[in-house]
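Researcher: Please predict.
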Amino acid sequence: MAIMLDSRHRIDRVKLIDDDPEVRALYKYSVEDLELFPEEISGPIGDAGTLIETFDSAADAAICDYNLKSKNYANTDGSVVVSKLYSRNVPAVLCTRWAGHVSDQIRYWRRRIPVVLSPNELNPETLLSAFEVCAKEFGGGFSDFRRPWRAMVRVESAEDAGGGHIRLNLVIPSWKSSVGLSYVVPPQPGAVLQDICRRAMVGEVVRSFGQVNLGVESDEDVYIDDWTM
């Protein structure tokens, strides 16, 4: 049975992306309870682009684990997969038991990851709600804590995070001026972020701008996107 999220988004199938067959089986129960068809991706799946080409944006959705690199299941993280699916209007939820520990790792992608759930939180109701949130955002309907606003971002320092990644340590004064945030930049970002990283790495305090969800309460859920100078 298909589920109509709105007049433009229907779900028939939910792809289950996790390197652990037992975890995929847990995902499967929630999908079947919604009377949708679960499709397990047993892997290996290679890169995100190869996997995403298998999706039908008119009928598919996904549940995706964050840590996909173990067991040679994939060469990318689940945050990349979910973000790219979102960009193609495919509803997807990122599932991880370590949300608080990876918030700085996924902040670069968080603008396009509307919902992060732990495996214990995943059930038919939370899964359907997550897909509905995605569909609303595809149409420009943002909740108060997800709506983007232009805000100044002050990058105070930077450090090598390994693997070509740079960790920016920053403050968003119009959000919470006393709260420092970390933001891990992947290799080969856009030109603006490259310039910010270069300047911060030599000790310069860099003032820039980005799209920020200023209505959010938890620092785990803050995103910064569309950086400008």
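Model: The mean pLDDT is 95.
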